[in-house]
Structures are given as structure tokens and as C-alpha cells.
Amino acid sequence: MRRWRLPVAGGELVPAEGLVAAGLTPRDRGAGLFAPVVEAGPSPARRGDGVARRLADASGRLATDSLVLRPRGGRLAAGEAAVTGPPVEQRLLPPVEFPLASLVAAAISSGSAFPFSAVQVPMVPGGPKGQETLGISGALAAARAAKQIDPKLKIAVFDMTDGGMDYGGLDDEDMVFTASLNKIAALAAAFALREALIAAGQGSTATTAADLLAAVEASWGAVVRKRFGKRPADFPKLSRIFDLTPPSPPAASWSIKFQTGGQTQTQLEALHDTPAVSSLLFFERLLLMAQFSDNLGAGGTIKDLGFQYIMGTMADLGLYDAAADKGLWLAKNYAGGQWGAVPSFSGQRANARSVAKYFAALGGGSLVNGGASAEMRGLLDAHWTRSFIQEGLRNASPSASYAVHAAKIGLYEMSDLPAKFGPADEGGYFERAAGGKTLKYALALLSGSIAGVQGAARLVDEIILQRNTP
Length: 470
Prior knowledge:
- This protein has helices at about 135-145, 185-200, 210-225, 240, 265-270, 280-290, 295-305, 305-315, 350-365, 370-380, 390-395, 450-465; strands at about 15, 25, 35, 50-55, 125, 155-160, 165-170, 175, 240-245, 255-260, 320, 325, 330, 350, 405-410, 425-435, 435-450.
- It is an alpha+beta fold.
- The strands form 5 sheets. It has a 6-stranded mixed beta sheet. A 4-stranded mixed beta sheet has the order 1-3-4-2, with helices on one face. It has a 3-stranded antiparallel beta sheet with strand order 8-14-13.
- Helix 1 (about 135-145) packs across helix 12 (about 450-465) and helix 11 packs across helix 12 (about 450-465).
């Protein structure tokens, strides 16, 4: 029987298939979960050498030939030197409560990392209706032919006024650079992760937050880290994102919430675009990203969530098709970080159809789930940035206003922007009273000039109004 005394040199387990990406070299064969170690003996390994040993099988169960011990620190207490028997360094002590997934007795009996199905947004062509004789796509095409629409613009719209999803678009599948608009992908992924973690906690035998998070990482790790196999592996930093309170009494559920310092929007405004953003807790960084389009807030939020989870969520929600490379794509974090090799202007891309679909699901309550949709809609409705779409409506009718304008813009006005792209983008879900009805629609206007987005917004609003006027 071989005996190894291996101090574990890191607190995160890595699946066998992720060792290379993590910079680790295994000294055990086979599948399972590995940890970096330091070793003595004929082939010593120091901290930082990247040597790993297998501690658990793929499900997170401790290997049957392994035992984890806690070393006793400090000096011997008075009188302890008189104890007979083996030297103190050889005495076996009780197992440590180790924050590694393979050593957690607790398990999760339900839930998965990606429990979400595609958003419920049917693509029903919006034909002629009311006073609109051309249908949505026909009316947009006619406006472009009449040079009423910026030729670079990509447009997608869902008329949701009567409870349907009547759709129309113009160049709506073209993938374009969309800058900060793509921060909406991280927003949805954060709420998806929270809901997945809540589901995982149901029926778990974990009694501490550390145990639950470790069990979750053991269960989800192999799937999440390599969801996109050709991209660098990562995993959400759960302990930086969530506050968890165990059930009390035992029949109750875990309380799982985003970590927050409770700052108001006014307080956050004073911190916008300052180094102090990096010291904020997760929810405030999320708010700065979503409402202020703050790049440091986005960088911290995306780093904590991880690109693998963000894009895995987009794929499962039906908002990104990896085979076709169509939809919402995020591979740069707005603060200098990126997900592997990313050509210029390729890290934040989308097509109008996927953006409109995102906001139609948000307005209809199927983006993650009804509760999460309502929360995200409220956050985006309180956006601090300008809205080109709202400005376009008010330019035409100063008294007009949206009761709901849950929106996000993207704006890139630097001189290096390729000529094929326009600098301004916006997507959102909108509601306003007009003609005795509440008009409801999801709209994406991508890759145009600011004036072009404003003008197209007025035109689309008029099409929606005409469709819903008898």
C-alpha cells in the first residue's frame, strides 16, 4: 500500500479534462477531480509547480484510497510533551471540514447548472393588421426603399400589444459589433445562476454555505468549465456572488441572494467610472453594469460569472446558436479581459433578432423565469444612460412617453470603428399608452448612427400604432 502525505496547495478542484487549461500536470491517471499539491520524495513538487493529484471521482466522491487530515498548528500545550506514543506529527487527527467539493458529505439532489429551456418567443410573422396594410417587415422594407431608414441599421421588432408575438425585421440575422449592449448577456446569466443555485439547494443535505457551494461546484464543474470546449475553462466564483443562509427550521429553504452593500442609484452615480467600483459587492457592480453601462462594473461582474456560464446560459435560452455563430455573443469583459483569442470588434457581437427576442422574453416573463424577468425589467427600466429610442419618440411628439422602457444601449464613437458598423445600438421592451390601448413591443436597432436609431424608433412606433388602430 502506498502512503502519500500531500499538502493540498489550492482550494479548487479541476476535472481531468480541464487540467491543461488550468496549467496543471497530473501524477495520477484516470478521470475525476484533481487538486494542486506539494510533495516531497524523489520527485518533489513545490507550490506553484502545477502538480496535481486525483482526490475524487467525477461525481465528487472522495477516492476510496484517500484520507484527508488536518495538521495541528502551533506549539504543544503545557504537559503534552509527556504523552507517550508516536511523535506528534504522526498522530492522526479528525478529518478537516475541507472546502473542496470532493470532501463534502453533502450532496445536491436536484437542479443543474443550466436548467433553462429556450425562451418562449414564437417567431410569428406580423402581417397586415389594423391600418397597417404591409405587415411589419413589409413596412420596414418600404421605409428603407424610401430612404427613411439608415442603410446600416439592423432591425427586429415584436408587436406584443394584443398578447401575441407578431414579428418583423430587416437584415435581422446579420451579426454586428454591438459594444455595451451585450452587457445584457451577463445580466441574464447572473439571474439564471441564482435560480439554478436555488434549485440546487432544494433537498441538499448541506448544512453550511461552504458545503453547499462545494457540492454544487463538484456537481456542475465538469459541465460548466468546458461548455465551450475550445475556449478557456472557467467557473462562477460563487462565494463572491452570493450570500447564503442555511434553512431554519430544517423544513425551510436556503436563502440565496446576491451579495450587496445596499447602495442607492444616487450613491452609485458618484462611483461610476471610478476605481472604487472594484471594491463594491457583486450586486452593486451588476447595477453599475446594467444601469450605468459602467465598464469596471461589467469587468468585475463578468469575471465573477465566467464566460463559460454566461455563454452557456445564452445557448440554453435560445439566444445564441453555436453551430451557426448567430445570436448574443460575449467574449470580452469591457475591462481588458477576454475569453481566449478574440479578433478586434468580435468580442461583443449580436444580431437584431436575438436582441429583440431577449427583450420580448423579458417583457413576456420567460427570460429565465417570471420572477427573474420582472426583476431584470425593473433594473433596466431604471437605467441611468440615455435611450436613443425614447429620444426618437420624444423628438416627434414631446408629450409622448413610455410607461416602461427597459432598455440597454451600446455606443462606440471611436475613430477605429470599421466602416461597415454604425456606432449606436439599442434594444429594449417598451410600453406606452396610445390610441386607447397600451402599445407593447420589443425592439432592437443595431449598428446605425444615433440619429438613424432615433428616426427608426419613431417609424417603428408608428407601425405598431397603425397595426393596433382599427
